[in-house]
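Batch 3, record 17
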Amino acid sequence: MKRNLQIKELFLKNFDKPVTELKFKNLYELIVCVMLSAQCTDKRVNLITPDLFKAYPDIKSLANANLASLKSYIQSCSFFNNKAQNLIKMAKAVCENFDGEIPLNEKDLKSLAGVGQKTAHVVLIEWCGANFMAVDTHVFRVSHRLNLSKAKTPEATEEDLTRIFKDNLNYLHQAMVLFGRYTCKAKKPLCKECFLNHLCTSKDKEI
Ligand code: SF4
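Prediction for the assembled complex:
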């Protein structure tokens, strides 16, 4: 079996239909969680959102939020100034352009403030099980250590992974996030217990 296919099958075998660690109850909460999680940990976002969603329980209340008040709820999140502005702009655009319904296609999602390709893909992966890859810091590191991509940007890495894996991309995305977060960590990867050890030739591999 080809090496890349072996890697794909081992990810799918070791992570049984994995889902995000972000906590959300509906699509509105999901998009807010994903926007907050950019360059921030899921753990931190999960600490912020219970009070945030009590104060702003739906897209309309977020669209009408006072900027300073919103910032006070998310100030422990990285880049909270920009994120607060984008959250309000995103919510206003959903209310004005999409009748208050968060759109579920890539083009319309990407038209919203603060929603780039990665955020749009993660929303579609988590809400619809869409066959998309999304590349965050974990997926980027894991892809390069496993020599699945040599690309310099997340976008080009996403293209490589999409071309190599083709299907089950939603599960593979989430598996690679969790694998990078808990096993193939940036510092001191847990190579001894890694199920891909025999396929890995990374210079970062701990012997
Ligand atoms: S062997 Fe180590 S560096 Fe290689 S994929 Fe596994 S955890 Fe990452």
